[in-house]
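We modelled the chain as a single entity of 877 amino acids. Its sequence is:
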Amino acid sequence: MRAVLMAGGSGTRLRPLTCDLPKPMVPLLNRPIAEHIINLLKRHGITEIIATLFYLPDVMRDYFQDGKDFGVQMTYAVEEDQPLGTAGCVKNVAELLHDTFVVISGDSLTDFNLTEAIAFHRAKGAKATLVLKRVRNPIEFGVVITDKTDRIVRFLEKPSTSEIFSDTANTGTYILEPEVLSYIPAGQSQDFSKDLFPRLLAEGEPMYGYVAEGYWCDVGHLDAYREAQYDALHGKVHIDYAYGETTHGLRVGKNTFIHSSAKLQPPVLIGDNCRIGPRATLSPGTVVGDNVTIGSDANLKRPIIGNGAVIGDDTHLRACIIARGTRAARRAHVLEGAVVGSLSTIGEEAQISPGVRVWPSKLIEAGATLNINLIWGQTAQRNLFGQRGVSGLANIDITPEFAVKLGAAYGSTLKAGDHVTVSRDQRSISRMVTRSLIAGLMSVGVNVENLDAVAIPMARNVLPTLNVVGGIHVRLHPTRSNHILIEFFDIQGIDISKSQEKKIEGAYFKEDLRRAQIHEIGTVTYPSSAVDIYTTAFEKHLNVASIRNSKSKVVIDYAYAVSGAVLPQLLAKFGCDAVVLNASLSAAAPSLDERDVLLSQLGQVVQALHATFGVQVSANGEQMVLVDEVGSPIRGEMLTALMAHMILTANPRGVIVVPVHASGAVDEIARRHDGWVLRTKANPTALMEACATHQDVVLGGSGDMGFIFPQLHPGFDAMFCIAKLIEMLLIQERSLGQIWEELPRISHRLQTIRCPWTVKGALMRYLVETHSADSLELIDGVKIIDPEAFANQSVNQPVNQPPDSQPPVNLSSMGSSVHRQRNPQNWVLILPDASEPLVHIFANSEDRSWVDGQLQNYRQRVQHFIESEQGIKEQIV
């Protein structure tokens, strides 16, 4: 007798286990489900097996091959184009079926007495016999009713609650005569329960139901998969185990080492070539695959662990599924019902919450708490917030469901009834994310002032004028065109503090979300005054008289990402001619290389039109690159120096705020104008806070981040910067090229090398310990000043304080230090990246050869330290 093993299912309800395996090949007690079915068939003398395949067919063919090693003869039939259904796939192999045959599902676990079922079939003279099982809840199965002679008189596939007329379920195991195949049309998708059996019933063909004794479980979903494992381990089903029983209830494979202090509480199954560490505890129901390593003090309560997994020291697993090749680091926690797909990594002290599913090859960062399924993205992060706001791949990491929860988490840190602004750039993806954030805010009783699509400087500027406690802005990431950036503002329009970020993260990860009653749901209003408020402030802080009717011509390149169409209108009011390029919104944001091409084209247009200057605006109105009158770009540190020079020329003795890594040219410029330089941590929030705290700041920022004019608002604003440039060029009666010639020539270079997160802290400590305290500055990273230039003066204190008329700066709270222009120009800064496993090395001097030598020197020192630290960690592991 032959059997048809239906093994084509993809098992979507068993995801993520079936992402890279067909459902019948998912392991159950360290053997594929299909192998248990083949062993059952073999026990009842059925050794010729035809497997029908569709999803990932090579997995089963490669495992069983011709079946010789399993004591059977295997034949395979692959449904090439589309699945043919349970009956259609059997019709597909009709030429191989000339006598009574068995059809059995490859994704169920059973120990039915097939010999008795076949005898029943023959005794009844049936054309079709359905093997039935009495179940408590038949809703998920086809139910069957028979008469006194066991002949089927009625059945229904997966009935609703009101349609249940029997507790006798169809198990998907059939004994058939070849004649019934004539009722199945060839090449069409046909189902036994929906198509063939109703047809046989209508034709009066003899069809019987055999109610079987024994165990049966349809492994159709993850809960059933776990229960089948536990039932088999407890001996509730007769199967052929992969390993012998060493003591009652304990089955251990070959070449497995179990430490003498490990505690095993049967029933437990452990595969071949495993290592169980000291004091590890394996509770009843634990299943461990082949080639698994379990660290010391690990606590395992009924997990199912796949082949090749590595479970770290003191890791806790609770009734979860860990697929093959997964690594769970020290003190990780995977809780009840969670499933981790193959080849994933769970970081140290990370936690996966109950019921969460992680798709294959994912990374859960150290310390992260994962409360939602991780499907499309690559990483579950420990923190929501990076160096600036919350960012991630558009519609992969930053999805509508993520944004709803993030909005609810933010709103839960506020009071019910509070108002916040929400704004965005013009892209559809930002609109989608914004609407989801609004839904989350409303759900916790927070009211929304929807500013809709506005440039981010306008959103910051209007915020203090509204009765709100904060705001959110959504835009494409300034440097990653496939990422979304979500930024949160405080009541002043400054990025929220780290403490507030932690509160939002706490609400998000702990799911400590307030739920408003129906009458408390937040409202949405649409303020229309944002543009008027910004325009008024814009004009108020310009010397309008000096630029009115100036006839200046400026070429503005929006790089296919419109940041604020209001700018040309504002400039036109002052008699300035604004020529706009690339103002349409492209389907995809241009890459950095594409923006460089556009910048070159901008230079050509500036020359052709004899324009005053050109500017490429980016980052939703925050950042810009200048092009002078001859088409040469001015960006980065050169742009920082140019802006500092022009502003201090107009405002001598003013204070300039720059990040810690800014070029020493700024210090030289400040010396020329008797000005002051305030250096902060290398992040936008620190710059904004410093500009807002010190009342005499005339300019903040850098060429890379953008520029802040605190008199207008505390955020970066390229639009106002353009207008200010026009004003200063007219007043100072010079061109950008002439000003560029006046800038000090300082050599300032950067090199970046990879540095693991776990080494960054040790690297900073090493640098501090190996340099004199008098040569160090610890605003952000480790800055090493030339010891000879500094003599015995401590650089941890400012050289000079601002005049008494200026209020003191709270350096400890702002992470900044004030310098006079006399500060030495020779320095090296080692700055860990806040978002990536990188470290940046800056060198600054008037002597280019000194910069080159120091970069080489510190690169070698840092690289050597990283390599030695990694070697030590590997030895410890």
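As a brief sanity check on the tokenised model: The longest strand covers residues 168-176. The chain has a mean pLDDT of 88.
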